[in-house]
Amino acid sequence: MKEIFAGGAPPAPAALAAKVRTLAPSMTRSMQRVAEAVAGDPAGCAALTVTGLAELTGTSEATVVRTARLLGYPGYRDLRLALAGLAAHQQSGRAPAVTADIAVDDPIADVVAKLAYDEQQTLADTAAGLDTVQLGAAVAALAAARRTEIYGVAASGLVAQDLAQKLLRIGHVAHAHSDPHLAVTNAVTLRAKDVAIAITHSGSTGDVIEPLRVAFEHGATTIAVTGRPDGLVSAYADHILTTSTARESELRPAAMSSRTSQLLVVDCLFVGVAQRTYETAAPALAASYEALAHRHRNG
Amino acid sequence: MKEIFAGGAPPAPAALAAKVRTLAPSMTRSMQRVAEAVAGDPAGCAALTVTGLAELTGTSEATVVRTARLLGYPGYRDLRLALAGLAAHQQSGRAPAVTADIAVDDPIADVVAKLAYDEQQTLADTAAGLDTVQLGAAVAALAAARRTEIYGVAASGLVAQDLAQKLLRIGHVAHAHSDPHLAVTNAVTLRAKDVAIAITHSGSTGDVIEPLRVAFEHGATTIAVTGRPDGLVSAYADHILTTSTARESELRPAAMSSRTSQLLVVDCLFVGVAQRTYETAAPALAASYEALAHRHRNG
DNA sequence: GTCACCTCTGGAAGGTATTTTCAGGCCGGG
DNA sequence: CCCGGCCTGAAAATACCTTCCAGAGGTGAC
């Protein structure tokens, strides 16, 4: 019995097609049919059992196993695993054109992929563009603050609320305002040692700038979270945190990516404050979980 | 030779780690050990037989098979194939860069990097784990809806508001409710052709389940956006959209990544509806920009 | 505290897939 | 025409996967 060893190489990576071509001359006719099928449709063959592949190629199980051996695998089982890997690999190769804008007739799966990709991109941009010195200063101010007021309207208003919710959970006195009148009324009461945060993508939202200006003039420490650091809001901000500005399109309003960006900044502020006030933050967070437990029903 | 083709959803793509995290809470201890091993070292596990994996995890073959089933595969054999594919996949896209948890003494720059990475991961997991058929059905229901009511409390409440805001901007009648009493009162008024959406990470938030149940019983089409598709909320949902569940830590509450995940899902719903109602959505969106222009000051 | 019930779990039986064995057939050479 | 070697596939043997079942462990009710 002659054993043909296909080189001392380990099983085989993704270069299966090449290996098939190299070894084809040393194969018998039946084995060539099997090898051909395998190289031609890895994904399809990975779904077949040894019997199935034998039938497909008009050969026998024994031949399939022999072919697998010749290709360098211990048996068909391992060839099949490699085939599955190869299939996954070359599927990942054909990357969908996620860079394109979302079109009206895009299938829903593409919409998901494109949105996810864009938001990931926004996060990366934001992280890269965030000034850690400014962020550190903002965190320090927040951690030392007696109370914190956060101003934002529309989409930014939700970000403001998000931050307020989280700060409250670690025992930090914070409140979000969406009503411009109440916001100004509130800003008047601020003093030194208080912090005011304005969140506005455009940097020119009057309803948010106004309360920040008032807070600034009353001596509070002011922070602006904005996509336009050159905007009007910056005039009244001690610390400016820049969010990224992604391109928008008809079907994807700017609010979408600015929100993602703002939330990351706000999360950073939160975690930074939690770090600095860990002694009180950790128990407060635990207590808030505890307090809400009974509001969840167990099935 | 028996070939069994399951008519339902396709087994599962490369979103295995996400699926493990999503389903982990509904798993038994032994199954969790298996799932953990599988998610932690796909390549290694792909090389093991049922018996091998059972020994490695200190469980039995039966448990391994049960876990494979729970993850959506017909049996261990298919899980193993998927694992091989996943291994090949993540080898090509090298650098898994497992981020450490955020520590109390992490410098602020690390906090930014880790948070950004985690949220990106959450987005990828969510996109991979989202059932596009369910999503499509939900979009269709929304697009045809007379009006839409969205229920969510705390962090999920903000997501609910975000969706409502956006739908309103394209001329879709939508409203978000955070007050449980008002939500139930509101749900009572729903009929067929109306849509109710419940957003809850835990899937067991009574204050949100209750209005959805009422809406469901009054004949409205109901949608659940939840991280626990096996939760109580699903009992009253016509369509279930699963958000991803990321590990949380002391300094990084679950609310953070669940929010990111929920927002992506909600964005997909929005864009889907905008596509389907493009004729009215596009002008409405343009008009909303127009209407807000004067609220921005030019410097 | 005890009991009943339900769920989880692993051992072992049962089935399927893979591997090995082996005998028959094809083909070229004598 | 006969012989010998090699290829080939059927079937046995084995390994692997799946299913079934009974015991263990925990939980809630009384």
TrEMBL record, chains A, B:
Stored SUPFAM superfamilies: Homeodomain-like, SIS domain
Pfam families: HTH_6, SIS
Keyword entries, A-Z: DNA-binding, Transcription, Transcription regulation
Range of residues in the leader sequence: none
Domain HTH rpiR-type, first and last residues per copy: 14-90
One BP term from GO: carbohydrate derivative metabolic process
A GO molecular function held by the record: DNA binding
UniProt name for this protein: Transcriptional regulator
Species name: Streptomyces longispororuber
